[in-house]
Design brief:
Blueprint (H helix, E strand, L loop, with lengths): L1 H23 L4 H15 L6 H9 L1 H12 L3 H6 L1 H25 L4 H11 L4 H10 L6 H23 L17 H9 L1 H11 L3 H33 L2 H21 L4 H11 L6 H25 L3 H6 L1 H25 L4 H10 L6 H11 L5 H31 L18 E4 L3 H12 L4 E5 L2 H9 L5 E2 L5 H6 L7 E4 L4 H14 L4 E6 L2 H10 L3 E4 L2 H14 L4 H25 L10 H23 L20 H4 L1 H5 L5
Parallel strand pairs: 1-2, 1-4, 2-3, 4-5, 5-6
Helix pairs in contact: 1-2, 2-15, 2-20, 3-15, 4-14, 4-15, 6-7, 6-9, 6-17, 8-9, 9-18, 10-19, 12-13, 12-14, 13-14, 13-15, 17-18, 17-20, 18-20, 19-20, 24-25, 25-27, 26-27, 27-28
Length: 655
């Protein structure tokens, strides 16, 4: 017990000190965890051989992470990714395996060992890459989505790799008399539990294994769709709050165990379970319950990677180890860059895609252990390969730092940047997040509603992401982008771009496609307001109208009106002017200049006289009880009163 508490204290203390420092220095949490592991392992010697066993447990953080990612994807979104999964991801695995096989063969390795090394190094680190992409809000960019597609393909590819490696076995490789040495025995012990579970299908023929695997997937799909809902509904009805967490963990762990029993990657199985539950009303509850465990286990996994680096082997032949690491990452980077060109990933996205996947991954540890157990790799080489993988993972956060530095210096216009892939459809679409759209978005989101934010300005999108606001780059007037954002299902569209012609085009197209959608539009001036009324906007807000009303109210107060009287004048002016704008829109003709439109001028004069009469009459009428105002309740704070006014906040009357 004392030993366990001591080890727990060491791991937690290292994380609590190193991670905040790394984040404060702009290095990211992943590098902080890796550094903490190096300090308590190779440098401090505070942890020992238990790190290997702990790493197997901590790898469950990757499983939970893929489950949470699956929750963010609807089945339709996964189907839309099929071309990148099969094309981009498949080519990456095959080409990387082939080139590294050729490089290893050129260094004098037998073809079986060369092929095994190629398979091992073809994989990248799902844990580090996705964690960093999420931290930097890059997962929704074109490069981030492409990287995720490749990582998912690699996780799927682990299964046939494990089945193929025994075919490369060299009898008696790791022992002179053909037996098993200590390393192999240790590896068998480490994997004893998965082997015992897999024995359930070990005696089945190939077609039987396939049927059992498909049956397990069907169980996950049907169970996730039909079984979890009544369970969570009962927990909600019984008000057993702590059971949400227990059932969520049971579901994830149960799916992982089921996948192990049929010989499938548990990470892949839980990802599928997450996709099945993406449309569940309990999705956010599942996310909230699993997220803390995912974060802790991933952090623990990164610490064990750092603690497991064998600096003795590194210092024994540093030139060879570092050379192999850099060579492997360079080969992968060249392949990734070439694939980015082929699949038309451009600009910053190409750089992100190339740098983010250049390392080897945590599944490489599994393949190396399995290959050593099956007498595919010599034990000495296994130690070297493990060190190369660990060093490449250690360098990955530095590659992301390099991406940040290079990306900020790239002189790249928004016109050359491809639009993001949108897989997040919310009931409110906000097109344009400049000064106007940002305020609308903050008000709506802080009121508990979800939005899909679009903007064609790349710097604005990057700024929004740095502050944690999910947003997508692209031209909101493009029909395909609007439909990808969920125009068919959205309840409200906010047209808030700076370009008034773009706003008009957007409103007109959205009204044609969705006669029932509510459209809130930003108008540059009075003429633009008329154009938007004719285009089909429901609510229209002139850029300077509300602020001008506030300034006018302050003038009235300075001239001796009470706050209540000035406020009543403001509200009345607002209502009458907004009604007049709709009236004038009927006689406005875009083909006739305003100064030549006699009907428009005469009607404007009539409406202005009516406005003047109404305002003067309101001031000369007998005072009302402030407790029963005609327009809105009196305000008591000059600085905050306009925010309380119902009409100015809505920004317009119903068209």
């Amino acid at each position: 017990m004392e030993s366990f508490l001591f080890q727990a204290t060491i791991y937690l203390l290292a994380a609590c000190v190193a991670v905040p420092l790394a984040v404060r220095l702009g290095l990211g949490s992943v590098l902080g965890y890796l550094t903490a592991g190096i300090i308590i392992g190779p440098i401090g010697g505070l942890v020992g051989s238990e790190t290997v066993d702990l790493q197997h447990f901590a790898e469950f953080g990757v499983v939970m992470m893929l489950f949470l990612i699956g929750l963010e994807l609807e089945p339709r979104s996964l189907w839309d990714m099929r071309h990148r999964l099969l094309g981009l991801g498949g080519l990456q695995v095959v080409v990387t395996t082939g080139l590294i096989y050729a490089a290893a063969s050129a260094l004098g390795q037998p073809w079986t060992i060369s092929l095994a090394i190629g398979l091992i190094f073809a994989l990248s680190s799902t844990a580090i890459v996705l964690q960093t992409l999420n931290e930097k809000n890059l997962i929704q960019t074109g490069g981030g989505r492409s990287a995720f597609s490749v990582l998912l393909t690699q996780d799927i590819a682990v299964i046939p790799m494990l089945a193929f490696l025994p075919l490369l076995a060299i009898p008696g490789l790791n022992n002179r008399d053909g037996g098993l040495d200590d390393t192999k025995t240790h590896t068998e012990d480490a994997h004893h539990a998965p082997d015992a579970l897999s024995s359930l299908i070990g005696d089945l023929p190939g077609w039987g294994v396939t049927l059992v695997t498909l049956a397990a997937i069907v169980v996950i799909v049907l169970g996730g769709h039909y079984l979890t809902r009544p369970i969570f509904r009962y927990i909600h009805w019984a008000r057993l709050r702590e059971m949400y967490t227990a059932v969520s963990l049971l579901f994830v762990v149960g799916v992982a165990v089921l996948m192990l029993m049929v010989g499938v990657s548990p990470a892949l199985g839980t990802f599928l379970a997450g996709v099945v539950l993406a449309n569940s009303e309990f999705r956010h509850e599942l996310e909230a319950d699993i997220e803390p465990f995912k974060g802790l286990l991933l952090g623990l996994f990164f610490i064990t990677v750092g603690a497991g680096i064998n600096f003795g082997t590194l210092f024994g032949d540093p030139v060879t180890i570092v050379g192999l690491t850099i060579g492997m990452m360079a080969i992968k980077a060249v392949i990734l860059f070439t694939l980015a060109l082929i699949f038309k990933i451009r600009g910053r996205d190409r750089m992100l895609f190339t740098l983010s996947l250049a390392q080897a991954g945590e599944f490489g540890f599994v393949l190396i252990s399995f290959a050593s157990q099956q007498s595919v790799l010599p034990n000495a080489m296994s130690e070297t390969l493990l060190l190369v993988i660990a060093l490449s993972m250690l360098l990955t956060p530095l590659l992301f730092i390099a991406y940040d530095a290079l990306s900020s210096r790239m002189a790249e216009s928004s016109a050359g940047q491809p639009a993001d892939e949108i897989d997040d459809q919310q009931p409110i679409i906000i097109a344009g997040v400049g000064r106007f759209g940002q305020v609308v978005n903050r008000l709506v989101k802080n009121s508990g509603f979800q939005t899909t934010v679009l903007d064609h300005d790349l710097s604005t999108i990057e700024l929004m992401r740095k502050f944690g606001f999910k947003s997508f780059f692209g031209d909101p007037t493009r029909p395909e982008l609007l439909h990808a954002a969920g125009l068919e299902k959205a309840k409200v569209l906010v047209a808030a771009m700076d370009d008034k012609d773009a706003v008009t085009r957007l409103v007109k197209y959205a009204r044609q496609e969705r006669p029932d959608i509510t459209i809130v539009a930003r108008a540059r001036d009075r003429v633009h307001t008329f154009e938007l009324y004719q285009a089909g906007a429901d609510f229209i807000t002139r850029e300077m109208f509300d602020s001008s009303l506030r300034a006018g109210r302050y003038v009235l107060e300075a001239m001796g009106l009470t706050e209540y009287e000035a406020h009543e004048q403001e509200v009345m002016f607002f209502k009458i002017d907004r009604a007049a704008m709709r009236d004038l829109a009927e006689v406005w003709n875009p083909k006739v200049p305003v100064l030549e439109n006699d009907a428009f001028i005469e009607r404007s004069k009539e409406l202005n006289r009516e406005l003047e009469t109404a305002l003067v009459s309101a001031l000369t009428a007998p005072p009302k009880n402030p407790a029963e105002p005609s327009g809105a309740e009196p305000d008591t704070d000059k600085d905050t009163a306009p925010e309380k006014d119902a009409p100015p906040q809505t920004g317009g009357s119903r068209a």
